Every structure is written in C-alpha cells, then in structure tokens.
Amino acid sequence: MNIDAIVNVLANVVYLIERKKISVDRAFTLTCRRVKCSTKEFTREDIYTLAHAFINNYYLVKHVVSRIRGDNYSYRMLARAFLYLKLPELGYSVDSKLKKAIKRDLPNLEQVLSDIEEPWIRLSYPKWMYEKLSKVLSREELEMMLRAMNKRNIWIRVNTLRIDVDKAIRELEREEVYVEQDKYIPFLLRVVKSRKPVRNLRLFREGYIVIQDRASVLTVMALRPEPQMLIYDVAAAPGIKTSLIMQLTENRARIIAMDLSIRRLMNMKKLLKKYGVDMDRVHIVLTDSRTVAFSRQADAALVDAPCSSSGAIPKDPAIKILLRNDRIPQRMSLIQVELLRNALRYADIVVFATCSLFPEEGEEVVMKVQSMDSRHRLVDAAIPASRGYRTYPIWHIVNRTYPHIDNCEGFFISRFES
C-alpha cells in the first residue's frame, strides 16, 4: 500500500484549503492536477472519500497531535495520524511503515485520543462555534445536530422540465442508485444507496436531475412562485434555485436574476440552458443587489443571502476550517440586512434565507429589518420544516432546518408579505 502517496494528497488538500480558502472539492481537484490521486489499492474516488473524511475530522486530529507534539507538526504528520486511526474502520490494515512512523512521531496517539473529553474536539468543530450555538440549543440537542452534520444526506431534485419523476426513479435504479421519495415534495429524492457518485451519472451530467439539498428546495417552496409572476432573485448564482422557480412554474415565471460576479453569472447561464430553462424569461443582471433600484415592483423576491455557510458543513467540511473566528456571522449579517431591506422596497412578497446555523444570520436579521419596515409583516412560510430558535420571540413564525431532525443542511427561512 502506497501510504506516502495518499499522505501527500491529504496534506496538499488541507494546505490549499487553509491557503486559498476554498472548498474540499476544489482543493482536491487542484491537488489532483499536480499529483497522482490513485494507487494500486485506492481509486481516485476512494482517496476523495478519505480527503473528505480527513477535513471533517481535522480539528480532532489537530488537537490530538498538538497534545503530543505542541506546535511541532506538519500537514503530512496530521495526515498520517488520520490514516492510522481511520484505515482500520474502512477495513484496511495499517502497514508496518505507517505504524513505525506513528510510534516514532506520535507515541500514545490512541491513548491521547481516548482521553479527550471536550465535545467540540470529539465532534471536530471550532470551540467558538460550539459555545455560540450552546446559547440557543441544549447541549444534548447541539451534540446531536453537530454529529449529524458530520455525515451528508444527498438529495436529488428531479428536473421535471426535462423528465418525469417515475421515469427518473426507474433510470436511477437501472444505475443501481436507490432513492427514497420525500413525503411532502414528490420530485425530491434522498439517495439511500448508490453504486457510484451521483455526479458521475448521465442523468446528472445532462441536467435531468440536480443535486440540491432539501433545505435549498424548501427555500424556493416558501416563495410559492406562480406562472406570470415577476420575481427578483437577488443573489442568484449559481442558479440552482432560479431553475427550480422555473420548474415549479413550468417555465412561465419571469425572473430578474442578479449577482455580483460576472464569472458566476456566465456559469449560471450555461447551467440554466442545460436544465431546460426558457432563457427568454430569465434576465441575468450583473449588479450589487444591496443598492440596485428598479422601476417596477415585483410580485416576489428571493433573498438567498451570502452567509457563513455554517449549515452547509455536511456538504463541505472545509467550512469548519474557514470559520476561524466568531466575528464572521456578525460581519455577514450586515450584508444580509442591506440585501433584505432593498428587496422589501421592490417586492410584495420576500423570502429571506441563509444557509447558516447562527441566529445573527437568521432571527436577528429578520427582527432588525422588521423594526425598520412598516409595509411588510412576517408570516408563516407554511413549509414542512422545523421552527426557529425558541430564545427569539419570532421562533414560531420562522423556519429552520436542523440536520438531525430534517435530514438536510441547516437553513434559516422566513417570509414577508405586504
């Protein structure tokens, strides 16, 4: 077994995440352009799975190693420690070379690991994140949620603009992908078992199915889009939610899709075409949605605001590393307030959502904006999701998705009506 090759890949991945502040997927792709990402025993997909698990457990491994070595360790040493601990769980034996390296560099590794009591270390999260969330959730509830976030539920949205649900399920089963249909959303499927990654399927490559988390779908459902509606999508790229609006209205809504990045908007245009969206009814605009002015009032606006992405950790555990300090939620909330306030100026119905676990990016944004806007009122979005944090007076009107309860990413979702 060529452990050194795998160690090299894992060390490169974490280096790129910390240096470039990018996702696990992006870091792995860049790494594989420079080094070989397969061995005789491990396919590229096997090593990707290891890289994902390494980043998921990075805080834990780093704490264990630092208790033995202080600050005297490298990314390669962290990768070796992870493989030594993880390979037996995956059914692989640890070769003698790796055992010798661990005995030499990290004596008593397993004992130090077993002695760890701090829950944020055991679950591999930043300490500040655990402490902040413990103010809105009980310790038991919080640990259940964080544990659930260390695993990913993959959801598939059947793109009914291109294929019907029953046919999609049959074709998935032919590819040995077994799914469970959502109780409330018939076109939404949870992957139960798959012979190969969904992203490698023809149905995905050709736009018949979309990998879209249930929480993301619920955000669009909260908007309740209808044919002929004029809808402002104020932070639209990469276009997954935009395409769902068009799917729900059978390509009969009219959307002004806005974003700050020309590159993201160009990619969005390609994606929407692949999904069968009528591009004559979608106008893509490069603008800052915090300050843009419109000559016409929209029926509805979707504000899926940029945020800490703390709720998306199941999809991208690199977010744990990128959430370096507790100032991030507050900094992002300033942008969110501006986006929501401007959307309320130009739309009768506004759905505000963030992929965040932090109340600063959810309940607190809504309460602040609510105090500034007398024309709109906060209403129940009427979606099959959990409620907000009970420490806030609006908890029973807004929605949250909790990974351990709703089997999806952690989102905050709210709806305003004039």
UniProtKB/TrEMBL annotation:
<dbReference type="InterPro" id="IPR023267">
    <property type="entry name" value="RCMT"/>
</dbReference>
<dbReference type="GO" id="GO:0008173">
    <property type="term" value="F:RNA methyltransferase activity"/>
</dbReference>
<dbReference type="InterPro" id="IPR029063">
    <property type="entry name" value="SAM-dependent_MTases_sf"/>
</dbReference>
<protein>
    <submittedName>
        <fullName>RsmB/NOP family class I SAM-dependent RNA methyltransferase</fullName>
    </submittedName>
</protein>
<dbReference type="InterPro" id="IPR049560">
    <property type="entry name" value="MeTrfase_RsmB-F_NOP2_cat"/>
</dbReference>
<dbReference type="InterPro" id="IPR054728">
    <property type="entry name" value="RsmB-like_ferredoxin"/>
</dbReference>
<dbReference type="Pfam" id="PF01189">
    <property type="entry name" value="Methyltr_RsmB-F"/>
</dbReference>
<dbReference type="GO" id="GO:0001510">
    <property type="term" value="P:RNA methylation"/>
</dbReference>
<keyword id="KW-0949">S-adenosyl-L-methionine</keyword>
<feature type="domain" description="SAM-dependent MTase RsmB/NOP-type">
    <location>
        <begin position="144"/>
        <end position="418"/>
    </location>
</feature>
<keyword id="KW-0694">RNA-binding</keyword>
<dbReference type="GO" id="GO:0003723">
    <property type="term" value="F:RNA binding"/>
</dbReference>
<keyword id="KW-0808">Transferase</keyword>
<keyword id="KW-0489">Methyltransferase</keyword>
<dbReference type="InterPro" id="IPR001678">
    <property type="entry name" value="MeTrfase_RsmB-F_NOP2_dom"/>
</dbReference>
<dbReference type="Pfam" id="PF22458">
    <property type="entry name" value="RsmF-B_ferredox"/>
</dbReference>
